[in-house]
Amino acid sequence: MYIFKNLSNGIRVVAEKIDYLKSVSIGVWVGSGSRYETAEENGISHFIEHMVFKGSSKRNAAEIASAIDNVGGQINAFTAREYTCFYTKTLDSHAEIAMDVLSDMIFAPTLDSQDMELEKRVIGEEIRLYEDSPEDLVYDLYYRAVWGDTPMGRTVLGTSETLAGIDRDIMRGYMKRHYIADNIIISVSGNFDDGFFDLLEKYFGSYSFEYEKPEMPAAVFRKGNILKQKDIEQVQLIVGFNGIDIMDESVYALLVFNNIFGCGMSSRLFQNIREKEGLVYSVSAGHSAYLGTGSFDICAGMSPENLMRVCELIAKEVKTVRRDKLTADEVERSKEMLKGSYILSYESTGARMQGAGRSLLLNKPVYTQEEALAKIDAVSVDDVAEVIDRVTDETTVSTAVLGPVSEEFDYSLCI
Fold first, then answer.
1. Long-range pairs of 73-79 with CB within 8 A, sequence gap ≥ 24
2. Known catalytic residue at 49
3. Which residue of the set 16, 37, 41, 49 is catalytic?
4. Which of 213, 268, 314, 315 has CA atoms 20 to 30 A from the CA of 163?
């Protein structure tokens, strides 16, 4: 059962008490990601994620790390397009230390100018590392193809040029506008006692804020193709379609469909393109859901000489599933697979914290495990057939290609 509370300053809390554990995961979720950024600010949300670990009103960078390390805990953060999350996992007896560290670094970072210049170099190395990871880079190309030069289509990391233009005043201004009560969720999963919420109030409830919640720019999926030549051994390919947004309850039917179609070693894509043909090392499909938009995409990596044949086989699998849909037996088998993987993933307090925190921040319902399993059980063959038609619509097919490929590549091969 989830407990929902508001702190005195308006920060919302969702907590799940699991009293047979001896640990607790605490996450602070902020509606700050690359989708909120202007072109000039691109990468600032991720930059902030780095900078709050560099020092706060109470601790320098080494002391922030050691405060959690010294009690055997974990502290980390990540930035996405629609949010940033800072989180800890500690023994329940050390929850107050975690709250003290998290609240101080998030709400009272020093943002030292010298540290900022050093961290720009660190993020520059991260960007170069990303450029050397074709499996990641091709997704940035795909996002640019379907969302264009918009906040949704830009990278989370930003560029060396945009980072160079961000100084301490710009970062403080951005944090004042985005790190506010209406835009922050605290999510908790694990064991805690009756005084836990008083501690949350002590460490997070005393901060005041000047601004209202910022508006998130709209993002419209458009049909697009993009190719980037790169001297690498494999070609990375994404074939995608307009998907469903994060509020759409048909996500359960989509997950049931994709368990059979493109998720895992038993999927049709893996069996028919890798196992039977031996043309790829990896091939899979997945969906990315956001507020007001989404994508269903198929990704594969292959030798350049196999690209055309892989495109033909992907197109064949899409056409087959659009025509024949899934059988009743496949739907039932997929539902059991999905329930099993869901239950196993939720044996982690970190996963439970993330699921609840992300949902509440994005104003989605926060379902209990029992409610989520009931949603899966309720999926019908007709539900799956309907979602297949929606997320494999040939009029929206879009492609990203990265590698040693001719600029004359025929995108029509992909569908």
1. 73/97, 73/98, 75/101, 75/102, 77/49, 77/52, 77/53, 78/49, 79/32, 79/33, 79/34, 79/45, 79/46, 79/49, 79/156
2. yes
3. 49
4. 213
